[in-house]
Amino acid sequence: MTKLHRSVVTWGLILVMVTSPALSYAQPPAAGDGNTLAYVTEKAAAAVLVRPRRVLEAPAMEMLPIEVLTAAGKQHLGIDPIDIVEILAIAEAPGEGPPGYGVVVRFAKPYELAKMQLPINWPIQESKIADRPYLQSQHPMMPGFYMPDDTTLLIAPHPMLTAMLMNQKTPKPGALSRLLSKTDANSDLMAVVMIEAVRPMLGAVVAQAANELPPQLQGVAKLPDLIDAAKVDIRVVTMPGASLALLAPDEVKAAELAKLLNDLLDMGEQFALAQVASEFQDDDPVQVATAQYTQRITKKMIDAVRPTQSGRVVKIAHDSESNMQVATIGILVALLLPAVQAAREAARRMSSSNNLKQIALAMHNYHDVHGKFPPRASLDDNGKPLLSWRVHLLPYLDQAHLYEQFRLDEPWDSDHNSKLIEAMPAVFRNPSSTAPLDLASYVVPVGEGSIFASAEGTPIRSITDGTSNTIMVLEVNHDASVIWTKPEDLNYDSAQPLTGLGNAHPGGFMVSLADGSVRFISASIDKEVFLRLLQMADGQAVRLD
Questions:
Q1: So where are the chain's domains?
Q2: Among the listed residues 87, 89, 129, the one whose alpha carbon sits nearest the alpha carbon of residue 108
Q3: What stretches of 115-172 adopt beta strand conformation (E)?
């Protein structure tokens, strides 16, 4: 790792630890705010202000490796992070040239520029401003380093650094500095963006993005016109909390903004609740309770971020420990829910694989008895299909009692046999399926050249492409599921052999090969390759691996 990389990592650790939301113990704020805001130029349009020292000295930080952070800061930066009172980063709005940017670092004790560990190979030239050392950048967009006093470090390209010094000497408060000065003194991290300074550019970007959204979300295109400025305040040391304040041009637009945000939250709530309902469809009491809990927390989270209006200001705030706890729980649920869903899907996929293995084994047991695999359907004397192969496989799936209840000389939808549809064994259903409970997820290929193309049943010796290279049973999409007793299977089109297949599980579907093995096939498989797998004797054997 290079010295520059180590410096970046060290500063990153400082910011992560400073802004960690896990802190919840109170501590008096650091005394005095100095003159950091005096360096905010009149044209500045965005700023982020962090107060590391007050956070790093909080009692809750005792459990974190402060000594390691201090040692790393001294070694790679020549600065003890705990001595940093404030870090202020500002940026001006884009104009004819590149936007100006700068950083102000204020220390709790004197430091010397010469003793700081600055990035090596930086294009800088030693100079002076007001008889103080100045490391001036030779690149117009890269920053130089200057300390106007022993406790303040400025980092900025030369034009911006000059503007910051002039503003500090002769203050010209801009809209940004006025908003920053009104920030809660207990805030540990704050960010302000002047939307009006970048409204034309932002409006074009938002409008373009809104065109890709569904009609009910088109209202987001109005946001740039309804907001003059946005400010975020985060408290870590004192009572934990956070707030987002949006400043509208006037009270009328503030009311419109509040309504738009509430409408978006309503739509978000409906989508989230529907998503939870779709993920927890089991009758298991624990799953039902989990769904109810997740829905309750979802509603609580959304209610916690409902905006309130006061004059021109629309504010979203978390100002109490209970709200922060709700937010924390909500974040945990949001993080854990995908993992829970993935684990449940993995279990269902494994269960579906076991179903296919049982079916494949039953197919081979049928072959051992009859010398061939079962025909795709039994036929009457006129050649009319009666009952699916799934029915005739029942004795080999430990379902002889159910098999004996069928009238084999009657079709699947006869008055007698139709009553047995609801008795479908679980082995014929993909556990991930959202289809009705009496529909089967597993079918056989009956197209030309497949194992089940013949109405008589196929002996294994006819599979000349190899049993490990030929598909015997497939798992169809949920909406392509079939009545299990009905003689209905995958009569594929050679031009579109994947029709009805591909999303039985995320990313693909399961198949059983003629050798009894079960494989997962990606939904993106080449259709020509897949067609070869369906053919049992075309002389073009394809191996899945």
A1: 3-182, 349-534
A2: 87
A3: 124-129, 132-137, 144-149, 152-156
